[in-house]
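# step 3/5: fold
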Amino acid sequence: MVPNACQYYQLTGVVVPCYNPTVYEKNAMPRNALSWKEQAKRLKDARALAAFLDLQPDGGIKFRKEYSGFLPLLMWQVDGPMPNGELGRYPLWLQMQSQLRKVWRKGFPEKDVLDLISANSTLLDFAAENSPVSESGSLDRYRKAILFLYGDSWRAKDPCPECGRHFIANHSQQQCCSVPCSVEWRQQYKAKRHEQVKEELNARRRQEYAAKKKNKKKTTR
């Protein structure tokens, strides 16, 4: 069935059109009302968000090489207030990472998305304005990736059960981040399931054997 309804959400001055999640094409996943070319860009940046979630404190340089222009250069050098009002300064990107993890875990609810986009907006805008000209629009890419996942929150998966990394799913039933992880995880799952079924079968046989033994004693009396 071709979508016949569309919802529009006004988020911080950006109108995000997306399919009603209850109305979508047969055998197709609900998606933002974007062109395929634009959606490909959003998916690329959404995957950068997933990588950002798993970024370690010493991984900033490697991340910037792999996802060049995704976040303002100055952002990596700016400190913000400590969490929970504690004294001291705290790297801004670590604050953003912590906030994003909470929203990701909840499934990108509207209020949390609004809070995430507006959080540290003054510092972020300052970082964007004072970054190299070649990185103009890098902050917009970050924010638009968040809005994209707001519309397609089913793509934002929990950590891969095999390698533990966050990832962006290609379909709603995807459990692992990659084919190798999926193969390994399925093999382990089947092995565990086989042992579970084996234990359940043996337990049932022991119960049946005990019941037969008990009945046999009754008939011999």
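# step 4/5: annotate
The two ends are 71 Å apart (CA to CA).
# step 5/5: archive (pending)
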